[in-house]
């Protein structure tokens, strides 16, 4: 594809020779002639002097004598589009349900959806159009999956929530008779677990993206457009608003509400409701600006102990010297 | 089922019209006429004024003019029984080993056990009666599973423990020749890993319930009736007593012993043995009453630093004023 | 096998009767006559007085009147070799690709490699010689796996990295067109996820051993001979040097570098680059010697608060007494 045509299709402009032919995408350091690359951050700008790429997508203020610059207001988005143009999305090599998948006869699979070998789709489950269900995904009965949903390998959807009534020394299983509803345009990473609701539905809102090894317990309601990074755990009945970001290894205790557009830093332990728009971090979760001061002080605790020890010594000296005249 | 008959079968009594017909269970907010619901907590009592449920299982002291109250000493357990009565347990749609499962010819599968598509059961493994082995569970050779055990999808049982002898710059694999023994009435959630012992058995005691994404390393001995919440990790050779509760994302270091009925709060890092009956929290694990004071002080650390700074200033002033007269 | 012959083969010497026949290996407490066992630590030495084992592999300075001691400079490594001699490695019961596995016709599988039922190997993937791919492992297209690699059940290799460009209120998927390269002699535990690179390769260096439920995000470069314990999470583009050890539940933030032979304690949150050879612990990661002092002070925080309170009281008294004379 000619560079100027590529730029046009991704809403960018070319500074340099727009007539060159672009054949592939590659990272700056590995790119060969004929490739387009991407400058993620102006601080890596000196790589423009060594890359063999023929063109680089970058912020509009970036200049180069060596290589054509494709100037885009949002270079990362422009680069994503360029990859799609040059490489397309994954080719599956088969259409529909692979014969080595197991789909219950009562389940419904939408047009354009592919179901990989080893995937299991249970009774009365419904999968929308143009979904990708990767190998060995298990979707239990009655779960509902919207359109254009991607679920990566070895993920479990609709497994029983963890509910037991303790009586007479025995944990009695509470049948989990709800389901999971995954709305349109959700992506769920590999090795995740989303448990079905006890009675109603565990819900993953439209456009939410979930990384690998995430655990979402029964009765959770996840809003739209959320980003949930790897190894996050939501306990039962947690509610996330829209566009919430949970970084890696966050844990959220049961029945809590996290407001729209809140951001929770990695490893945070959320033990209270979180206001919309907040940025939280720490164990337990604190407002980020407070947490930064708390952790800065935490890392200097031995020094603080020493200062207190010196104060105690100083105080003892003063009290002694105060006592002396009286004696 | 008539309400009074349902109440009788779950050991509860009806305040209101026992002759009404109950057709289903539902949460208070979604229930329709003919449904029975459940009041989990007296603080949600005002929902009794708006629910469309025909009956509600609740503590004996709860009253309502609108809806029949099914009074039970342990309402949660009564509700669990009501769900079983009205909905039954999951219907599998097949019996025994599904043809798309893989069971080694030497493995033994008990009567009434169902093995879902994609499950793998290795050489000389034994699965007891009335178990459910969900899709894509892998049970390696020689593992022993008791009766009425449930194992959810994509869980791995009996994989090699993580044991290597480092010699000459190489991590040499130590063959893991033990197995996993899962006793009766255990439930293991989805995407869990339970590693086989190096030489003897990793043991999961009877009636223990394990949530999703839990890692239990080789040689662990988990007692009876334990509750292990999602994303917990037990390092090698950990021993849990009976009725231990580990909340989400807890980590326990190798070779430690946690006593009977101990409770460990979410995200706790256990680095020492834990006494029976203790409640522990924090990183590192502390007695809960201590931990609450430690974390309260932690969150006010910047304030404490400021107080120390003011003390230092006060001390400097006093020392100055103390010096002056002498000078 | 005669004990003296076994000792010879594992590079050890026998103190006691080398002519006895050894039939099996077992832990000290369960061993029967004819078994060889292993004394991991001199502090368990009194078990030598009660074990029924016929021989015990131990440090050269260990003595016993009851049982033959097989003296080895590195007893753990010697024991590992003894297990291999007496038990061999796992027998698979089949050779090559099991008919219930799914291997794309374009994928290449080396000689001596076994692929278990339910495993999925995608287009143009290459698996080397003498590998073991356990049940329900998914290896996406174009991933490269070296020789003698072991991958345990339900692990996902080459799934899409978690990359989205946010534009117009939508998270747009960035096609992940790189792959995963796993070098020779790597072992990957069960239920792990290793994401393919966005453009180039996510790399796991030769001889690295990965425990269960580990998440390695796109573009990571893991060095040679590393030990990565269960439930660790590496965010995108993390670089580990050689012989790095990450203990359980460690999290490493994106784009960081951890130097050769660094050791990171369990549950640590790594938020900065780590120097080669460092030992780090804590959230956030600190040098272990500093972290020990910080956490010791942390656990005594309520006491420190009390000391500050007493200082404030002492100060108030002194200031009062100081004021009085002036008045």
Please name the defining characteristics of this protein:
homotrimer; 4 helices
Short structural summary:
Three copies of one chain form a homotrimer. Chain A is of the alpha/beta class and 327 residues long.
Indicate the proportion of strand residues of chain A. 25-35%
Shape of chain A: flat
Strands of the biggest beta sheet of chain A: in what spatial order?
8-11-14-19-22-25-28-31-33-34
Please provide the count of β strands of chain A. Answer: 34
Q: Low-confidence segments of chain A, ≥5 residues, pLDDT <50? A: none
From the structure provided, what is the oligomeric state, counting identical versus distinct chains?
A: homotrimer
Gyration radius of chain A, in Å: 27 Å
Q: Average pLDDT value of chain A?
A: 95
Structural class of chain A: alpha/beta
Helical region count of chain A? 4
Q: Biggest interface: chains and residue counts? A: A-B, 63 and 64 residues
The helical percent of chain A reads: 10-25%
Question: What distance separates the N and C termini of chain A?
Answer: 97 Å
Biggest sheet statistics of chain A: 10 strands, mixed
How would you portray this structure in words?
3 copies of one chain form a homotrimer. With 327 residues, chain A is α/β, with parallel strands linked by helices. Helix content of chain A is 18%, strand content 27%. Chain A has 4 helices and 34 strands. The longest helix of chain A has 26 residues, at 301-326. Chain A is flat. The model of chain A has no long low-confidence stretch (mean pLDDT 95). At the A-B interface, strand 16, strand 17, helix 3 and helix 4 of A face helix 2, helix 3 and helix 4 of B.
């Amino acid at each position: 594809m000619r560079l100027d045509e590529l730029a046009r299709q991704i809403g960018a402009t070319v500074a340099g020779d727009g007539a060159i032919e672009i054949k592939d995408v590659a990272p700056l350091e590995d790119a060969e002639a004929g490739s387009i690359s991407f400058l993620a951050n102006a601080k890596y700008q000196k790589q423009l002097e060594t890359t063999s790429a023929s063109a680089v997508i970058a912020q509009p203020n970036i200049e180069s004598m060596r290589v054509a610059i494709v100037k885009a207001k949002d270079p990362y988005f422009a680069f994503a589009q360029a990859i799609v143009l040059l490489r397309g999305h994954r080719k599956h090599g088969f259409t529909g349900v692979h014969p080595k998948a197991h789909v219950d006869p009562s389940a419904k699979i939408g047009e354009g959806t592919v179901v990989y070998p080893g995937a299991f789709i249970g009774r009365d489950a419904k999968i929308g159009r143009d979904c990708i269900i990767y190998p060995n995904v298990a979707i239990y009965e009655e779960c509902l999956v919207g359109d254009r949903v991607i679920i990566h390998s070895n993920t479990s959807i609709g497994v029983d929530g963890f509910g037991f009534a303790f009586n007479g020394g025995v944990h009695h299983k509470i049948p989990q008779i709800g389901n999971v509803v995954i709305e349109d345009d959700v992506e769920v990473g590999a090795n995740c677990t989303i448990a079905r609701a006890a009675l109603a539905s565990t819900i993953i809102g439209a456009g939410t993206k979930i990384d690998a090894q995430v655990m979402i317990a029964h009765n959770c309601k996840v809003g739209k457009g959320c980003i949930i990074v790897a190894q996050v755990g939501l306990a039962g009945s947690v509610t996330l608003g829209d566009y919430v970001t949970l970084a890696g290894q966050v844990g959220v205790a049961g029945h809590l509400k996290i407001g729209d557009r809140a951001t929770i830093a990695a490893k945070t332990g959320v033990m209270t409701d979180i206001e919309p728009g907040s940025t939280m971090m720490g164990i337990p979760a604190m407002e980020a600006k407070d947490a930064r001061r708390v952790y800065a002080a935490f890392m200097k605790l031995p020094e603080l102990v020493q200062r207190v020890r010196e104060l105690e010594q100083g105080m003892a000296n003063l009290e002694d010297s105060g006592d002396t005249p009286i004696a």
